[in-house]
Amino acid sequence: MNAIQALTERVSVAQLTGPDLTPAEEDSLFLAALRAADHAWMRPSRYLTVRGDDRAKLGRLFLESAPDWQTLPDDKQAKLLNMPMRAPLIVVAVCTINDHPKVSREEQLMSTAAGVQNMLNAAWAQGLGAIWRTGEVAYNRRIAEGLGLAANEEIVAFVYLGRINAAPKPVPELPVADFVQSWPLKSS
Ligand SMILES: Cc1cc2nc3c(=O)[nH]c(=O)nc-3n(C[C@H](O)[C@H](O)[C@H](O)COP(=O)(O)O)c2cc1C
Which CATH number describes the domain made up of 3-178? Predict the structure, then answer.
């Protein structure tokens, strides 16, 4: 698969399974992420990997960090506990936000987001599946602290990764002309 094909045909894949990624496959994901655009080379992004039995610990953290978790119905508790079991590898993309005269918090978050997209593309390019997930678990400070994040760090994504376990959804057809205009616009 060439680069343009990978970029234009990638879709998110939620049905993921083993065998585990090889070290070479995994390294290429992080090398791609580390090539994200990065204003002033602040290097705001870092990544945590969660795999194997440690995924159950992450599920426990998801559950026990939810507000009033003990009163949640059993199905909601089970959902939180089992979330990390949906893929053999979870990468937590973390943005470390520092003051900079020219680079705002938003720009630092955008750089980490660009790294996540590079990771999705790198996964697809080598036949792996990946999906970017956030939801409440990404914005819960108890979860951030449980993962060891400092006060100036934010979760940008939980990237679920693995081998594709079901036919990927078709690539949506998006006519370029619907999204691209030549400026100045011609008045009708
Ligand atoms: C910031 C961000 C947060 C996302 N959070 C979730 C999520 O919580 N759950 C989910 O299923 N997908 C999530 N996604 C993935 C999108 O759902 C996915 O990209 C979308 O379904 C389009 O599919 P495609 O990537 O195949 O085009 C998120 C994507 C982004 C950019």
Answer: 3.40.109.10
pLDDT at 186 over 90: no
Is residue 71 exposed (0-12), middle (13-18) or buried (19+ Cβ within 10 Å)? Answer: exposed
- For the chain, what are the domain ranges? 3-178
Taking only the tens place, the pLDDT of each residue in 78-115 is 999 999 999 999 999 999 999 999 999 999 999 999 99
Sorted by sequence, the CB contacts under 8 Å of residue 100 that are 6+ apart come out as 40, 42, 108
Per the CB < 8 A criterion, the answer to whether 20 and 180 are in contact is no
Q: Whose CA is nearest to atom 23 of ligand 1?
A: 12
Distance 12 CA to ligand 1 centre (A): 7
- Report the atom number in ligand 1 closest to the C-alpha of 135: 8
Sort 138 into a burial class: Cβ within 10 Å, 0-12 / 13-18 / 19+. Answer: middle
